[in-house]
Amino acid sequence: MKKNIAGTEVDVNEEGYLTDMSQWNENIATAIAAEEGVGPLNEGHQKVIQYLRAQQAKGAALTIRSMGKSGVVTTKELYDLFPGGPLKKSSKIAGIPKPVGCI
Amino acid sequence: MSSPEDKQPVKKMSIIVSRGSLDGIYPALIMANGARMEGIEASLFFTFFGLNALADKTLDHLKVSTVGNSALNMAMPMLGLPMTVPFPTWMGAIPGVSAFATGLMNKEMEKLDIPPVREFLELISDSGGKIYACKLAMDMFKLKKEDLMDRVDGVLTVGQFYEASAGAGTHILFT
Q1: CB distance from B113 to chain A under 8 Å?
Q2: Structural domain of B82
Q3: Does B96 touch chain A (CB under 8 A)?
């Protein structure tokens, strides 16, 4: 379905995740972050978002373990940056699909 | 009919870990980590043989239980065999079989990005999950706090564990 986020019409699924990551921009990220109670987005958030988008573009499966080992962010920092669902919320803000794994 | 009360979210998982084999420990670790990833509070209370997963000297060497495990046919696909191939329980007692099964399982778990026990406990601890040891079981097995891995948040009595689990939306799970 269509949703207007930060003045841009984008395609989202029923949970509000962008279905086409190329429609994403930083204003959308800011708007979703506010909706999710995250932010304001700082450099730490941006690094995670860029990393997630790069991994998704490569088709890599994302896990909380691989994030902690990425060198981009520690597990603790990730939980602090995106309280209430580190991988779920960061993925939503980054405009990529909701992670499907259990780890 | 579902009413709004039915939709009350799970707010906290208090998970009791009473078994000390590799296959006895992992479900609890996965459920605790999964809870934290969903923004749900999580605590693990290791009691009886579950302490095997907290004792510094043993936690890196947990084994799959091959004796008395009548469901080991489940592991046959890891060897490229159908799941219906039986694994006679007497075979589980042969020296080396448990180590072999453990190696096999560890390899499969690594493929799925499931961390080894120590790293998993560190991950849960870093995510804000709490790790507790049961005082009574500690006394029984002659263990001291310093015998446990460094991420243990405390040694609790059963009463203290229930106190720590207080709150609406808490679920207590025995594994």
Answers
A1: yes
A2: 12-174
A3: no
